Amino acid sequence: MGTHNSKENSNLILSNVENINTRETSMKRKSSIVDKPIYYSGWQEICRCSHADWLHGNAELFGFTPHKFICNSELHNICAPGFCSESLSRKLHHGSYRSSSKRFQSSTSLKSKKLREHFEYNHIPAMISSLQNYSVHGIVNGCSISGLDHGSTIMLLIYSAVLEKTKFIIVDLKLNRYVCALGDDYNGLIDARKVHAAWSMDRTQVLIRLPITGTTTVLDFYKIVKKEAKLYRRISPIDINTQFQFCPNYWSSRLAFYTHSTGVSTTIMNYNITSLPLSGSNKTPIQTLPLNQSIHGSYLCSMNVHTWSMSKNQNLVIDDSFRLLSFVYTPDSVYLILTFVDNFCHCGETLPISYFDIYHGNTFQCLHRIHTQLSTHICPWHLCRNPLTSIFSMSSSRMAFCTTKNNGGRELQVSIIVLPNELNLKSICRRTIIQYLNEYHGKIEDITNELPYRLSQYIQYRPEYQ
Predict the structure, then answer these.
(1) pTM of structure
(2) Rounded to the nearest 5°, which phi and psi values hold at 342?
(3) Residue 379 and residue 104: Cα distance in Å, rounded?
(4) Using only C-alpha atoms, what is the Rg of the chain?
(5) Which H or E run includes 25?
(6) Are 202 and 194 in contact (CB under 8 A)?
(7) Distance CA 329, CA 151 (A)
(8) Residue 14 confidence (pLDDT)
(9) I need a labelling partner for 201 at 20 to 30 A (CA). Which of 9, 11, 208, 216 fits?
(10) 391 - beta bridge partners?
(11) Which strands make up the sheet holding 353-360, listed edge to edge?
(12) pLDDT by 10s per residue, the chain, length 466
């Protein structure tokens, strides 16, 4: 009996020693980061590590939330590596994946079928008669940070073969619930890859760019009240490659807008939403106005959503061999990151080339360019955007992205660079507070309850302006 207790005690002592050693190692790693100079020069690379090291501590040490660049398989338990929602849109649409292996195709088709059933069973309410006979056919924007609501909310494209109509529904993945449905007169099956959408910060407006007839692409504006979405404006025609993001510093009144203008006359149609039923997109517009475009070519501009007036614009000179993949604001709205990729398929052995152009969030002045490249088989056209998209630390002071630059494309690594401090005392103070909390494992919620309301909202990156 005594011998048994001594063994237990020795095992307990060994376990305690191991735990102490583990904590000491963790503290040393933490201190090695904290003890480094806090003030780096802007655009300086402060760390480059393997994706495994990124997942096993480096992300947390440098103030980032956990994020998988290679695969973000969190939609359903049948997801496998490489089966994230960006490529899922293509799999749901085509029913198979780009592979010569029949076994792999049948496996992927089975996964696609199960995933459709998962969404249809869990997220399309059976009690809503207007959604009956609809099935899931794609995911709009994907689940990357440039997606709808930065990944926590997705938009599904649903289609009824009986009615030959397409609708869109918004699904909250965190709460696992249906939010609302949009559209009731989109005829035929629309390819989800040709649709782009954005949701305002106060969750009251949704903008959708989509093709409707032939070569015509439109931009539809929806207002959302509870679970009802009503079309109140349509701009037609618009460039098929147009992209947009709501500014995080505003509720729903401002967005960054990228498009290519060729001088074709554009029309704005306004609808009376007070007298319309749900969606109301098949009603006659109450007002039709010509939209005068004074600039031509590719440009980035700041638009007032309510009046659709332009406050700032910046012409973009894009090489013919590259295209804009996505753009996203930093959480504090100080910078706007545009991601460009080459126009070639890289499903084979070739290395994709990309770069980030970093613009000032208010003036749209181009500040810096970061060149990068990725490993083979990461194709911007046919695979997930996660390896191609940058993410930001909780304090918005650092940017992380995948690259194989300077190592010959042998290993996918994560590079972390410092974003320069905006010359704004409020922004600098917010970054310092959040960095301090991260270093000592604190949470924003620990201090926001003790702060005045406006300061508490500012610390949490809540919009400042209506």
Answers:
(1) 0.78
(2) -75, 165
(3) 18
(4) 24
(5) helix 2-34
(6) no
(7) 14
(8) 33
(9) 216
(10) 400
(11) 322-329, 335-342, 353-360, 366-373
(12) 333 444 333 343 333 434 434 434 443 444 444 444 456 678 889 999 988 899 898 998 898 988 877 654 444 444 433 334 444 444 444 443 333 344 434 445 666 677 677 777 777 776 677 787 888 887 787 554 544 554 567 888 888 989 899 999 888 877 777 888 898 789 998 888 788 999 888 888 999 999 987 788 999 999 988 778 889 999 988 988 899 999 988 888 899 999 887 767 888 888 877 654 444 444 667 777 777 766 778 889 999 998 888 888 888 888 888 888 888 899 888 899 999 988 887 777 777 888 999 999 888 999 999 988 777 667 777 666 667 788 899 888 899 998 887 766 677 889 999 998 766 787 788 888 887 777 777 777 777 777 888 888 888 887 766 5
Report the candidate in 56, 172, 67, 84 with the shortest Cα–Cα distance to residue 394: 67
What angle, rounded to 10 degrees, do the helices at 102-123 and 85-94 form? Answer: 100
**Looking at this protein, which amino acid is placed at residue 273?**
I
Residue with tokens 């207007």: 130
Specify which residues 465 forms β-bridges with.
250
Give residues with Cβ within 8 angstroms of 63, minimum separation 6: 393, 394, 395, 397, 398, 434, 435, 438
**CA-CA distance, 6 to 4, in Å (whole number)?**
5
Contact 281, 184 (CB under 8 A): yes
pLDDT on residue 8: 39
Q: How far is CA 236 from CA 218, 264, 269, in A?
A: 5, 10, 8
Structure tokens, 197:
């959408």
Tally of residues, the chain: 466
> How far apart, in whole angstroms, are the C-alpha atoms of residue 196 and residue 219?
9
| DSSP 8-state code for residue 41 | P
Residues 181, 124: Cα–Cα separation, whole Å: 9
Are 62 and 160 within 8 A, CB to CB? no
Sheet hosting strand 45-50, strand order edge to edge: 45-50, 413-418, 398-403, 391-392
Continuous segment of H or E residues that includes residue 19: helix 2-34
Query: Alpha-carbon distance 300 to 69, whole Å?
Result: 27
Residue indicated by tokens 């009802």: 228
452 three-state secondary structure: coil
Are 411 and 6 contacting, i.e. CB atoms less than 8 angstroms apart? Answer: no
Q: Rounded CA gap, 166 and 160, in Å?
A: 7
- In one-letter notation, the amino acid at residue 282 is N
Per-residue model confidence as pLDDT tens digits over 205-224: 999 999 987 788 999 999 98
DSSP assigned state of 77:
T
Q: How far, in whole angstroms, is CA 407 from its chain's centroid?
A: 28
